[in-house]
Amino acid sequence: MSRKRVVTCSINGREQQFLCESRQTLLGVLRDTLDMTGTKEGCSNGNCGACTVLLDGRPVVSCLVLAVECEGAQISTIEGVAQPEKLAPVQQAFLENAALQCGICTPGIIMQTQALLKDNPNPTEAEIRFYLAGNLCRCTGYDKIVKAVQQTAQMGSGSCQPDCCGK
Amino acid sequence: MHDFEYESPRTLAEAVAILGRGDGKPLAGGTDLIDHIRTGRFRPAVVVDLKKIPELAILVSDSHGLRVGAAVPSYKLQSSAVIRQQYTAIADAVSIIGGVQIQNRATIGGNLCTSGPAADSAPALLALGAQCVITGPQGTRTVPLEKFFTGPGKNVLQVGEVLVEITCPAPAPHSGSNYRRFIPRNEMDIAVVGVGVSVTLDASGQTVTAARIGLGAVGPTPILATEAAKFLIGQPVCDASFKTAGEVARTQTSPIDDMRGTVEFRRHVTGVLVERSLREAVARARGESQFHPHVRGSCGG
Q1: Chain A residues closer than 8 Å to B294 by CB
Q2: Domain ranges of chain B
Q3: How far is B35 from chain A, CA to nearest CA, in Å?
Q4: Least enclosed by CB within 10 Å: which of A43, B139, B149, B195?
Q5: pLDDT of B269 over the 70 cut
Q6: Are strands A5-11 and A74-76 parallel, antiparallel or unpaired?
Q7: Is B27 on the interface with A (CB under 8 A)?
């Protein structure tokens, strides 16, 4: 077996160390080593976006990132989005618009939405659809998701906490 | 997943030495490699992360042209003003490779080294006259992109060799370029046909003085359509010229039937996309159009 490595990085604003094998993906470490199962596994090959997290502020599919690549990185996951007793505006908007059914795609879409609104606080519908093209939902249909993103934008989203996007 | 060691050398010499052992695979964005290891297509003893090597991270342009490090991710290319303005076909291509998450990781060097016939960056770079700078145990050599690919998934890289950077000559005045592809979806798909073109016009903007055309997904490798480009030289800028160039380009393809399209369909679409791409490249050469991300007309069929 390849030698294990210690990786030090920041996850949701908190410094973390973990031990991993070279072959473990960031997704695998989050779920299986760190018990952070909010990030979901969908296709495992980069097509579905369910495992989207922010790596140094940019959305990536964590199934296609090796955990050993994350030394020194700032990672944001769905676990860092809500405040202790209160949902973030983006989460509230997804609830109010019924923008989820089974919920597997939702953490990835929330993270992708956070990244979109950080770059582009007032996106057009076309820009929302384009930005979320790498996040597949097989239950709801996309209209409610787009409406939830629009509502988050209208709420003036500072929608995330200071640490959650790594910026 | 198959077990492997991970190395992240800080110098090119170290990377060449590790890869020279013959049992490693280079890692850039990982969007192809990690999936290929997971599915068992590759079983490397060591994965060599190239992202910490300074030579592979450059993105510079001057009066001679553009130099892009092989490990520069797509999002950086897409947001570069000089690429949008002067090497626009690259911006077109990298803004439609996968979705945003993939563009944040996937690199142009990785796209070329995976050497898929449908790689979006290849026709764009062929059109722009790209050269591949390769360093290996024997030193550094430069290979024109049209000589880089040798078959589906295959290229000229020998054991221990690393694609370090891609260079493009500075475009002449009155030049424009475009890449577009046909896919049945709006985004997040593999090209059924991809076409990159660059044109240079005379000062009046009425006559083509130089052209290059790259074709993707219509042969075992990306193709430089030299005959179609040769036809265009001296031709007036008009729909009839574009149409004939498209017809000539069709004769330079050797597509296959597969789930994405038939031979007949791919040949037909090649001509259509060459016409449309020429029209857009000419508009850009004349300063009448520019790169627009997310506009269907500039990326879709």
Answers
A1: 126-127, 130
A2: 5-49, 54-169, 175-299
A3: 6
A4: B139
A5: yes
A6: parallel
A7: yes
Q: Mind listing the pLDDT tens digit for each residue in B42-85?
A: 999 999 999 999 999 999 999 999 999 999 999 999 999 999 99
**Contacts with A, B 75-134, CB within 8 Å:** 75, 98-102, 104-105
Q: What CATH topology corresponds to B54-169?
A: 3.30.465
Residues A89-154, CATH architecture: Orthogonal Bundle (1.10)
- Beta carbons within 8 Å of B8's beta carbon, 6+ residues apart: A68, A69, B48, B49, B51, B52
The domain over range B175-299 is classified in CATH as 3.30.390.50: yes
Query: Nearest-5° angle of CA B15, CA A20, CA B101?
Result: 70
CB contact under 8 A, A133 and B187: yes
Alpha helices in chain A (DSSP H): 26-28, 89-96, 106-119, 125-131, 143-154
Q: Do B38 and A49 touch (CB under 8 A)?
A: no
Report the pLDDT value the prediction gives residue A159, as an integer from 0 to 100.
Answer: 47
In this predicted structure, what is the pLDDT of residue B298?
Answer: 38
End-to-end CA distance of chain B: 38
pTM of the model: 0.94
Strand-by-strand arrangement of the A14-20 sheet: A14-20, A5-11, A74-76, A52-55, A58-61
B contacts of A109 (beta carbons < 8 Å): none
Task: Enter the ipTM.
Answer: 0.93
Chain B residues touching A19 at Cβ < 8 A: none
Tell me the Cα Rg of chain A. Answer: 15
Contact yes or no for B104 and A59 at CB 8 A: yes
Q: Rg of chain B over CA atoms, in angstroms?
A: 19
Give how far Cα B56 sits from Cα of B68, B107, B147, Å.
8, 10, 21
**Chain B closest-CA separation from residue A60 CA (Å):** 4
pLDDT tens per residue across span A41-93:
999 999 999 999 999 999 999 999 999 999 999 999 999 999 989 999 999 99
